[in-house]
Request: fold
Amino acid sequence: AQSVSQHNHHVILSEAASLELGCNYSYGGTVNLFWYVQYPGQHLQLLLKYFSGDPLVKGIKGFEAEFIKSKFSFNLRKPSVQWSDTAEYFCAVSLNNAGNMLTFGGGTRLMVKP
Amino acid sequence: DTGVSQDPRHKITKRGQNVTFRCDPISEHNRLYWYRQTLGQGPEFLTYFQNEAQLEKSRLLSDRFSAERPKGSFSTLEIQRTEQGDSAMYLCASNRGSNTEAFFGQGTRLTVV
Reply:
């Protein structure tokens, strides 16, 4: 069974700092990759996704992620965070099969200090 | 709002009682998923439907759990004889089919006392 690891459980940054959240998965086959965000009191929302093609994926709100197949990684980046980016971030993987069920990492709680 | 809708948002129940949650997916989505999320963890897959057919169930879905999607639209998740370990956020998601984005509802938070 596949698994997803997010290395940082809690991250605290000041506004305008750069962000990189790590995500590694364990599965040797073809996967789809996602980053979801959950703002306080809100539902999970998709930030960006990778199915195929250009491994550098751009999402909403200035986020991007790079799929490095050789490292089984899909790290999330943002060059300059804002206070409004305070949220919990989840990396997820689905197999490229009929069900496409998502396997999530444990999440990273980001706090951005104004 | 045309997103995924879940009801109720919160449920407190006594141990041993049965509870039922409802999920209304986005109307044109033929796939519906249930996940469970406990504090400090990411969501874990429970089961999914394609139209009215339940196609896969996780090992997490014990015999006390049952899910239905009778007409291929809304779905219900029932937990019988609730235990304290069932306390969690139960999330519903839907999508159009293979390799498409899943949209999540706001979840039902279950507390078993």
Observations:
- The longest strand of chain A covers residues 87-95.
- The interface with chain B takes residues 4, 32, 36, 42-46, 49, 51, 90, 92, 96, 98-107 of chain A (CB under 8 Å).
